[in-house]
Amino acid sequence: MWSNRKEKRKALKKLKRKERRKEIAEKERLEEEARLNDPEEERKRILLEQQEAERIERDRIAFEEREKAWIIKQQQQRDLEEEQQQLSQRDLEQHESELEEEEEEDVDDDDDGRPEIIWLGNEIIIQKKNPNPLLLLHNHNHHHHHHHHQEQHEHHDNRPTSNPFPPESPSQPLHNVAQQPPNFGTELDKAHCPFHLKTAACRFGDRCSRVHFYPDKSCTLLIKNMYNGPGLAWEQDEGLEAVAQSWLEEL
C-alpha cells in the first residue's frame, strides 16, 4: 500500500511539470506574437537587417580592394623580375661577346707569334716565330718606331730561357735523354725522378722507382744525412721535419 501511494505521488508530480512546461511555452508564444505585431519591434527588426546588410557590403568592398591591391603588387613584382632577367641576359650576352673578342685576339696573337720549343743537346731553347707579315706591314705604317723596338726584343727572346742541365755522367749521359720526347723533365714525365733532376738527390735513394742521373759535378750543396738517416726507416712523416738539434746529433 505504501508503494502504491508513492507511485501515485510520483505520477502526479510528473503531470504537474508537464502542464507547467506547456504554460511556459504558450506564454512565450503569445509574447513573440505580440512583439512581432508591435510596430516598434518591427521597426527595430528592419533597422537591424539594414545594418547587417551594410556591414556585409562594407566587408565585400574591403575584400575586393585588398584583392585588387594584391594583384597589382604581384604584377609589379613580375614586371620587376622580367626586367632584371632581361638586364642579366643583356649583361651575359655582352660578357660572352667580350670573351669571344678576347679569344679571337688570343688566336690572332698565337698565330702571329706562338713560341717554339727546341731541344738542343742538354739545353732547352724557346724561340718565337716571326709575326704575321700583314700585321708587320700595318704596324710599320703606323708605328715604325715601335716596330723597330719589337724586332730588337724578339732578337733577345731567341736566346735560351733556361739553365742547362747538370753535366753529363759517363754511366748515364743526359745527352741521350734530351733526345727523348719533349715531356722529359716535366710533370708528364713519369719515367724520371723530377726531384732528383732538380736537386741531384732523392730521399728514397736506390728504392726510388724512377730513373736517377748521377752527374760528375753538381751545383747543389748536399748535407750528410740530408735525405737518409738511421731514423727514417721507422719514423713517420713527422720525422722528416728537420730541426737544428737533430742535425747536430746526426752530424
TrEMBL record:
GO terms for molecular function: RNA binding; zinc ion binding. It holds the Pfam family zf-CCCH. The keyword Transmembrane does not apply. Transmembrane segments: none annotated. Residues 98-113 have a biased composition (Acidic residues). One of its GO terms (cellular component) is U2AF complex. The keyword Repeat applies. Residues 1-20, 139-150 have a biased composition (Basic residues). GO terms for biological process: mRNA splicing, via spliceosome. This is U2 auxiliary factor small subunit. It comes from Medicago truncatula.
